[in-house]
Amino acid sequence: MQVIETLAEGLKREIKVVIPAKDMEAQMNERLEDVKGRVRINGFRPGKVPFAHLKKMYGKSVMAELVNEIVRDRPTAILSERGEKSATQPEVAMTEDQAEAEKILNGQADFEFTLSYEVIPAIDLKDNSGITVTREVVDIDAKEVDEQILKIAESARSYETKKGKAADGDRVTIDYLGKVDGEAFDGGKDEDAELVLGSNRFIPGFEEQLVGLKAGDEKVITVTFPAEYPAANLAGKEATFDINVKEVAAPSEVEINDELATKLGLESADKLREIVRGQIESQYGSVSRQKVKRQILDQLDEMYKFETPERLVEAEFENIWRQINTDLAQSGKTFADEDTTEEAAREEYRKLAERRVRLGLVLSEIGEKAGVQVTDEEMQQSLYQQLRQFPGQEKQILEYFQKTPGAAASLRAPIFEEKVVDHLLGEIKVTDKTVSKEDLLADDEDGDDKGSKKAAPKKKAAAKAEAQEGEDAAPKKKAPAKKKAAEGDAE
């Protein structure tokens, strides 16, 4: 077998592989000899089939198997022998001429194919001890814990029917029908809907107009959907709602005690406070870690400058760009609405793609040199998390990960990355700084990639792309997929 390098330009490589016809024929003959004693052909006793006849009947099919196996297996071996790692699956090209292909299968011509790929650049790891980050920490006081418990307790709060007008905090049971320009719209109707006034579950202006109504009242209210409302056909539109009040109920008092804890499935108020405090700490800790991670990535981005594989960058850019356009379409907006142009946005998101590919390669190299491993147990836990997100579709999800090439890698990659960040936190200087929860959760105006502020859509449409890199400082809220049109930020 001859391996000839025909292109070495930057990270691009092209290899020509030539396997002489005599070598291909020799391998074919070995396989035919191996099966000769087991082949059953009418007119011949087992093991007595003439080799020439066996070759005539099965030679081409065996040669085709050899070609497929070579194309499948040899590229990996060739790259390993060359000490190279391909950034993506190498592209294999071979003759498309039918006559030439017949000669190869008949052992009359050399088998030639080419490999085209980009190598992963060599990365000279630098000393990480110079990286410094500030970790924001929030002191959680008892008042905040109790406030959170009272919010949770809303699910356990009881209501008693009352006579008279509905006040803020009361629960009203209503039928409603929404209309735009006098026409009812999809999702704008419900019956026996329960709404706690002041909960801000419905769009602005809706709940306020129900205050003062009593059971049996009917009223037509007018509201305007927010300009950024997810349903494009309703965004910014004025609508009317025909309201029929069926019941008004006043809330019972909620006290944080053992009785409340029991209603929530816990043994005591102390245990309830302990669990809620832990949840708050976990929430703040997650946000703080994202900010720390961003600081680390920003400094690694400054430390490492090298050419990135174009195919990886293009694949990353396409993922981001697809998300951008999907989110813009769902919101009914254009790049002009986001104070940019498609051309400018493309340029900025390609910079983001390049950064993410480069940092991904750096983190991979750091993790490999540090011996970071992702265990089978961690992979199983990640898979279970995926399954929990799609109740009722567990079988399909499992089949997807079992049968889809690269699917398992999508589970492994974020785990590996977080473990590399953990490793780096043990090498760099971390200074804790106590801040208020408002400061911790505030949107960071400098949170976008450097040089990408002109790409305005990224702030709204590419949250997923950012979050994977620690770019998003605060967790984004997602509305339920089937939320009724009258409801705003219910969650």
Automatic annotation (TrEMBL):
<keyword id="KW-0697">Rotamase</keyword>
<dbReference type="InterPro" id="IPR037041">
    <property type="entry name" value="Trigger_fac_C_sf"/>
</dbReference>
<dbReference type="InterPro" id="IPR046357">
    <property type="entry name" value="PPIase_dom_sf"/>
</dbReference>
<protein>
    <recommendedName>
        <fullName>Trigger factor</fullName>
        <ecNumber>5.2.1.8</ecNumber>
    </recommendedName>
</protein>
<dbReference type="Pfam" id="PF05697">
    <property type="entry name" value="Trigger_N"/>
</dbReference>
<dbReference type="Pfam" id="PF05698">
    <property type="entry name" value="Trigger_C"/>
</dbReference>
<keyword id="KW-0143">Chaperone</keyword>
<comment type="similarity">
    <text>Belongs to the FKBP-type PPIase family. Tig subfamily.</text>
</comment>
<dbReference type="InterPro" id="IPR001179">
    <property type="entry name" value="PPIase_FKBP_dom"/>
</dbReference>
<feature type="domain" description="PPIase FKBP-type">
    <location>
        <begin position="169"/>
        <end position="270"/>
    </location>
</feature>
<dbReference type="GO" id="GO:0003755">
    <property type="term" value="F:peptidyl-prolyl cis-trans isomerase activity"/>
</dbReference>
<keyword id="KW-0131">Cell cycle</keyword>
<comment type="function">
    <text>Involved in protein export. Acts as a chaperone by maintaining the newly synthesized protein in an open conformation. Functions as a peptidyl-prolyl cis-trans isomerase.</text>
</comment>
<keyword id="KW-0963">Cytoplasm</keyword>
<keyword id="KW-0132">Cell division</keyword>
<dbReference type="InterPro" id="IPR005215">
    <property type="entry name" value="Trig_fac"/>
</dbReference>
<keyword id="KW-0413">Isomerase</keyword>
<dbReference type="InterPro" id="IPR008880">
    <property type="entry name" value="Trigger_fac_C"/>
</dbReference>
<dbReference type="InterPro" id="IPR027304">
    <property type="entry name" value="Trigger_fact/SurA_dom_sf"/>
</dbReference>
<feature type="region of interest" description="Disordered">
    <location>
        <begin position="435"/>
        <end position="491"/>
    </location>
</feature>
<dbReference type="Pfam" id="PF00254">
    <property type="entry name" value="FKBP_C"/>
</dbReference>
<dbReference type="InterPro" id="IPR008881">
    <property type="entry name" value="Trigger_fac_ribosome-bd_bac"/>
</dbReference>
<dbReference type="InterPro" id="IPR036611">
    <property type="entry name" value="Trigger_fac_ribosome-bd_sf"/>
</dbReference>
<feature type="compositionally biased region" description="Basic residues">
    <location>
        <begin position="453"/>
        <end position="462"/>
    </location>
</feature>
